[in-house]
Amino acid sequence: MSETLSVLAARSTSTISDALDIAGLAGAVFGLRRMSGSAVVVGPAFTVMFEPVAEGRPAAAADYIEDVPAGSVVVLANEGRAVTVWGDILTSVALANGIAGTVIDGYCRDVDGIRELGYSVWARDAFMRTGKNRVRMRAVQVPVVIGDEGVEVRPGDIVCADGNGVLRVPSAAADDIAAEVVRIGEMEERVLRDVRAGLSLRDARLAHGYNRAALRIAADAR
Question: Which residues does substrate bind (predicted)?
Answer without folding.
Answer: 87-90, 109
